[in-house]
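Protocol step 6 of 9: fold each sequence in the batch and record its structure tokens directly after the sequence line. For illustration, a two-sequence batch is reproduced in full.

Sequence one:
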Amino acid sequence: MKTIPSCAVLLLAALTGTAQAAECPVLLQGELPRLRAKDSIDLCERFAGKPLLVVNTASYCGFAPQFKGLEALYQEYRAQGLEVLGVPSNDFRQEDADSAKTAEVCYVNYGVTFTMTEPQAVSGDRAIPLFRELAEQSGPPRWNFYKYVVDRQGKVVASFSSRTKPDSEQLRAAIEQAIASRP
């Protein structure tokens, strides 16, 4: 008799897990290691139902000063639910092999408080699933500091080149559109 309730519990747990996975947009399925930390970021748990700005970054890129503007956007819009995810990458050969140096650039030099991952592949065949899905919905990043604005349903509403500054009216309009979207 004890096996029936435990089987029912296992079945319920499996169905609940499946339901949760079904509710999570494809874009947010998976985990990424947090920059210079021992834990990982469960993308669905952390970002599902929230407007999101995803940016592939590089410490030694000429666009690195955009970190300050990205942080300012995060501070301005986070009370409205905006999340920012920075994903360092050496795909364009401008990121340090030592993630401690990457962390120093982000956290010390630019005062970043938004979520950052360990360096990842963001383009081509080796791109992580997050960037494969971003590319499928909008196109692959052509350089560092390519920006993707994602609505609360996990759909890309707009993407912007590296040349688009964080204080751009078009970027701000896309972020406001994502914030206004329904979960």
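Sequence two, same batch, same settings:
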Amino acid sequence: MTLPQLDAFGAPAVPSGVAVLGIPASIGQLTAYHAQAVGEPRGTVLFVPGFTGSKEDFRDFLPLLSALGWDVWAYSQRGQGDSVGPVGAGNYSLELFAADVFEVAAIVGNGAPVHLLGHSFGGIVAPEAVIAHPEAFLSLTVLCSGPNGWAGRHAETSEILAEGGSMGLWNRNNPHTVGQADELLTPDMAFLRLRAARTSSDNLRAGAYILRTHVDRSVEIAAAGLPVLIAHGEFDDAWPIEAQRAMAVRIGADYQVIPGGAHSPQLEAPGATVAILDRFWANHQPAIGTAELQSTQQYKE
């Protein structure tokens, strides 16, 4: 399959060995990073980013995994950053987010099952895709995400989004940037503000509602029959750590605490995160026929 090459989104440089590609999903074009495996391919991995996030959350992390032989992809979900952002909250249901995961996985895996990782809000979306289509995946990793929402979660966020949209939320969280020109900000901060401006307010409103009302799917995840890893940074303060640990017990999942990590351990403790993920995926390799199929996939980039 030929996937279109895209320009980088925002100012930060894309690392060497990482391509920016368009994914032709049913909803429209979703944007992705692809770091092709170095040496003998060991399997394909797909990352799903979290609330207010995008593929750029894994920009510097993907080459660390591709250097170990993993063919690694991260995409921006519908309404995130430079991915297509349909108008209307009805376009951002949990079922539709999960349907995108299944569709993207089929494309990047060239029809073969892939290892799936969901971070934070992506850790709610990814299990839904696994529950609906377990045959499309080799394993599931839930990174810094919990089993269910709780009353009042993101209630203030929802109010701010209703009044000021995505930029209203950005300005609340980053008041020091209000009125500042891009050149007065660091490149990373200027990018994050651009991403906020380009992120769909409907995506965020729907995401906040999903985070607040989501119910525990541990039983259904376990019934899907895939190897599961529940992992979080030792300092994760976005999801109750005990809830994440208990979720792993209910599923019968591998459970790992990432030393030095907080809510985004791929940024805060990349080396420790790579080691844990590499070990988990290596222990759950596909059958020979699937591995051969994955190793022969080719994309014109």
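Proceed to step 7 once all outputs are recorded. Observation for sequence two: The radius of gyration is 18 Å.
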